[in-house]
Amino acid sequence: MRLARSPTVQTLVVFCVVFALQSVIRLVSLPLAASLFTLAPPVALRPWALPLSVYAHANLPHLVSNAIALLFAGLLIERVTTTFRFHAYFLAVGILAGVSQVWVDGLVGPAHPVLGASGAVFGLFGYLLAGNPMADAVLGKLRLSRRAQIVAMLALAFLATLTTATPGVALIAHFTGFAVGLVAGRLHILRTETQATSNDRAVQ
Predict the structure, then answer these.
(1) What is the pLDDT of residues 65-114, one digit of tens each?
(2) First vs last C-alpha separation in the chain
(3) CB distance 52 to 33 below 8 Å
(4) Mind giving me the DSSP string for 93-138?
(5) Where are the domains of the chain?
(6) 2-203 has which fold?
C-alpha cells in the first residue's frame, strides 16, 4: 500500500507510538519519562534521549500541531527523495536543533529540557523553500555572492523563527532547523540522482 510506504506517514506513526509510550511511563514515573524522552544537559550521559526527544511531545496539542506541519512539508519533500534519506535528514536535523537549543540555553542561563519535532519540521520547511526550482531561478537571476546568500538565508531563518516567538517555544531549535533546511535545500542533499537528471533535462 502506497500510504504505508510514505516516510511522512511512517514518521507520524512513530510520533504516535512514542507518545503512547510516554503516556504510559508518565503514569508510572514522571522523572523516568523525563529522563527517557527529554533532551537535557549533560547530553552525553543520556544518548538515547537524542533520537527519542525528536519524536516525543509534551502533550496532545503539541503532537497535533507538529503532525499537521509535518504533513504539509513532508508529503511534498518525500516526492523527490528516498525513504532512507527522508528519515536520516529528519532525525539528524531534529537532533542538531535540540542540541543547539540546550547548548545556547546553557550559555545564557539554566538549560531547559527540550523535546518535540518542531526543529526537524522547520528543517523540512527550510528545505522546501530553498530547494525548489523557483528558488533556483530567483537566486540565479539575483546573482548573489556566496556570502550574500548566507546572510540572506540567516535573515530568512530569523524572520521565520519570529513567527513562532511565544513563551515556552524552543526558538533556537526552530532557527537552527530552518537555517539547516535552507542550506540543505540549496545543496539539494535530499534529491536523488534520478530526480536531478530529470530536473536538468527540464531546464535544458
Answers:
(1) 999 999 999 999 999 999 999 999 999 999 999 999 999 988 877 778 89
(2) 35
(3) no
(4) HHHHHHHHHHHHHHHHSPPPPB--SHHHHHHHHHHHHHSSHHHHHH
(5) 2-203
(6) Rhomboid-like fold (1.20.1540)
